[in-house]
Amino acid sequence: MRENWVVAPEFKELNKQLRQAVAQFDQTGELIVAGDRNTIRKVEINGSWYSIKRFKIPNAFQSLVYRFLRKSKAQRSYLYGMKLLAADLGTPTPVAYLEQFGLGLKQSFYISRHLDYDLDFRVLIHKPLYPDRKKILRQFTKFTYDLHQQGIQFLDHSPGNTLIVKVGEDYHFYLIDLNRMRFGTMNLENRMRNFRRLWLSKAMIKVMAPVYAELYGESTDHIHELMLRYSGQFQKKITAKKVRRRRRRS
Q1: N or C: less crowded end of the chain, CB within 10 Å?
Q2: What is the CATH number of the domain that holds 214?
Q3: Is the pTM of this model over 0.70?
């Protein structure tokens, strides 16, 4: 079986320990996520903690696509993480990735520094009275604007994919699940559409729209209308899908 094992330059001295942790994935560290698609474990190496993500084994067709036509999710996670850091935007530090190939891609892993965080964006949705909620939303809007200004369109910009750390009186934001991004200049419609997966309430949009409007140089009313429109369309679409699934099961 052919392997592609890449370690970031600053972690080269841990090459052997990192590779061993991947080889012993099922027996090492602490299980954090055991999903249908991906599994994540937290491991300690030389006094520091790392997160290792094992991606679901692709089907036969996908494995050939990842072998010959498209970068694997592990490789994209690593490369896109490096792009975020180069743009001074938050993500857990990329450390390494591994691809294992037969005829096609068999398994792949992505390693990053483990991040201890205070909350993720979902908390702001489910807890309207969360302390500093408005302040966090305003600072998050600035973070998303900075993403857009750097030409980074995070396609999975959803509630579970932003981790939040309080630093002093401010909040820092870290993106995870990085394998789906586009790069290039974004017009206003694309920027506003990029907020749609965050499942924003009308109250949240009311807080966020003026911040983006001031940064972008657009009227608050226009930004508010676009955010509301794209968020509403997405939420209706997802709700309709759930209703159809329930009907099929009944």
Answers
A1: C
A2: 1.10.510
A3: yes
> Considering 88, 113, 138, which residue would you say is the last residue of a domain?
113
Q: Please give the residue range of the domain that contains residue 215.
A: 119-244
pLDDT tens for 199-231 read 999 999 999 999 999 999 999 999 999 999 999
Among residues 86, 113, 140, which one ends one of the domains? 113
Instruction: Examine the domain organization and report whether 26 and 126 are in the same domain.
Output: no
Instruction: List pLDDT tens digits, range 91-143.
Output: 999 999 999 999 999 999 999 999 999 999 999 999 999 999 999 999 999 99
Counted domains in the chain: 2
- Per-residue HEC secondary structure of the chain comes to CEEEEEECHHHHHHHHHHHHHHHCHHHCCEEEEECCCEEEEEEEECCEEEEEEEECCCCHHHHHHHHHCCCCHHHHHHHHHHHHHHCCCCCCCEEEEEEEECCCEEEEEEEEECCCCCEEHHHHHHCCCCCCHHHHHHHHHHHHHHHHHCCEEECCCCHHHEEEEEECCEEEEEECCCCCEEECCCCHHHHHHCCHHHCCCHHHHHHHHHHHHHHHCCCHHHHHHHHHHHHHHHHHHHHHHHHHHHHHHC
Asked whether residue 52 falls in the same domain as residue 78, the answer is yes
